Amino acid sequence: MAGAEVFVPDSRDLEVLTTAARGCRGCDLYRDASQTVFGAGARDARMMLIGEQPGDREDRAGAPFVGPAGRVLDDALHAAGIERDSVYLTNAVKHFKFTQAERGKRRIHKTPSRTEVVACRPWLVAELDAVEPEVVVLLGATAAKSVLGNDFRVTQHRGEVLHLPSGVTTGEPELVATVHPSSLLRGPKEDRDIAFDGLVDDLRLAASLCHTPA
């Protein structure tokens, strides 16, 4: 697996990066996905949110966080006093990885491998360099491990203010690690309110780290 390096242009222009990402063949996920789902949002966003990968809805629409998990995230952002239009949303992996249901046409989410996450990482670094956010919210384990290493555990560092390893990007954003919104949908219904409140608290912490309003 060659990785995305050879497909990433030397540019900080998000339009240039988005166009180039459509032709990425850095891993095999492009073969089955409908399209590349690059990041979207405010070019001058002070806050960047990174998820795992696009889901079925995102793969069809070509935009991040437009499915059920996106609706949960929208509600959490609203509760935290953060405007979605003011942030930049992306994923660690830009193509939808899935397995086909034995019956019917339903496509079932499959977690990207470490190799696939590493292969796609140059795109994420390019987005960080282009947007230069003050704070980055890592939504879930895959996103956190994509920038902090495979040994990182969200449960051990939730609620902490973290930092990128040196040399990853030109900026020095502060990091907040939290759960992925989809985990609220998968968890027991009786626990969802508590889990939602925890996500909102983490987003509020991230917003408090911005020198200018998120």
TrEMBL record:
GO terms for biological process: DNA repair. Residues 38-204 form the Uracil-DNA glycosylase-like domain. It comes from the Bacteria. GO terms for molecular function: 4 iron, 4 sulfur cluster binding; deaminated base DNA N-glycosylase activity; metal ion binding. The keyword DNA repair applies. Gene3D superfamilies: Uracil-DNA glycosylase-like domain. Keywords: 4Fe-4S, DNA damage, DNA repair, Hydrolase, Iron, Iron-sulfur, Metal-binding. SMART domains: UDG (SM00986), UreE_C (SM00987). InterPro entries: UDG_Type-4/5, Ura-DNA_glyco_family4, Uracil-DNA_glycosylase-like, Uracil-DNA_glycosylase-like_sf. PANTHER family: TYPE-4 URACIL-DNA GLYCOSYLASE (PTHR33693:SF9), TYPE-5 URACIL-DNA GLYCOSYLASE (PTHR33693). Belongs to the uracil-DNA glycosylase (UDG) superfamily. Type 4 (UDGa) family. This is Type-4 uracil-DNA glycosylase.
